[in-house]
Amino acid sequence: MEGDNKWKILFFGGTGYIGKFMVRASVSLGHPTFVYARPLSTHGISPANAKLRDEFRGIGVTVLEGELEEHEKMVSAMREVDVVISTLPYPLVPAQLKIIQAIKAAGNIKRFLPSEFGCEEDRITALPPFQAFLDKKKCIRRAIEAAGIPYTYVSANCYGAYFINILLRPYEHKETVIVYGTGDAKSVFNYEEDIARYTIRVSCDPRACNRIAIYRLPKNVISQNELISLWEMKTGRSLKRVHVSEEELVELSQTLPDPENIPVSIIHSILVKGDLMRYDLKEDDFEVSTMYLNMDYTSIDQLLDIFLTGNPPPPTIAAFA
């Protein structure tokens, strides 16, 4: 059975795009919640980041300020908690080796969730710029296993609102839409708030220990063509489709400078090849829609309604450098 204990959860990257959803979900599910973040005095901390920290404190989050280089400070923070969740952005993925060292030194962490939340990197092969991205995450997995740290790896697939903002650009009200490849490859678009709630559940669930949690939510498996048609039906508009071929994406992945070649390689993988749905689930995979049958989630249909009538997450672009 799923554990009922309210474990103490420490976040690295808790003020980032997906991190803030995770922190709020942790609090809403009743877990004592901690965020380890760079000091506000550090160059580059935005006013929005400072405001978010104030919000966190207002809902009961303990915000600890420190750098990833401060080993003893991280070890001290970890000795106060049970679970560590990293939502650090791609440029800081290798820095998780410092988190692993601190977890090993602390000796009390019941579960570590590294910064993944996208593709299942051990089961797909992508164009070189994206493959290099995946290989860095695979190195973190192997380091966790070598250290003997209890883990859960999360393959949450696509952030639904993030990709709707990129693919449909609803805030621009344009009459054209880009279709990558044929537009028929299936992908999985999960709402960020649901990704967060499922992640908090699996982080404290004994059944998910040392397993891969996959968020292949049935109502959110959809092709780009189907997504566009659904949006047209809801808005009453007819969009002109402009196709970008697979060959064009491959060429861009070879000619664009680093890191601009990474996003086109990701698009090739998930929207042209359909890598998120090209592998079968294994018997030991922890697929959340089958493990938490009593948990409702936002369908892609409902998520589009949020874009029409609600308060969707604003557009943003992931950092690759």
UniProtKB/TrEMBL annotation:
Top-level taxon of the source organism: Eukaryota
Keyword field: NADP, Oxidoreductase
Pfam family of the protein (one): NmrA
Annotated NmrA-like domain residues: 6-300
InterPro entries linked to this entry: NAD(P)-bd_dom_sf, NmrA-like, NmrA-type/Isoflavone_red_sf, PCBER-like
Single Gene Ontology MF annotation: oxidoreductase activity
Annotated signal sequence range: none
Protein name: NmrA-like domain-containing protein
Species annotation: Trapa incisa
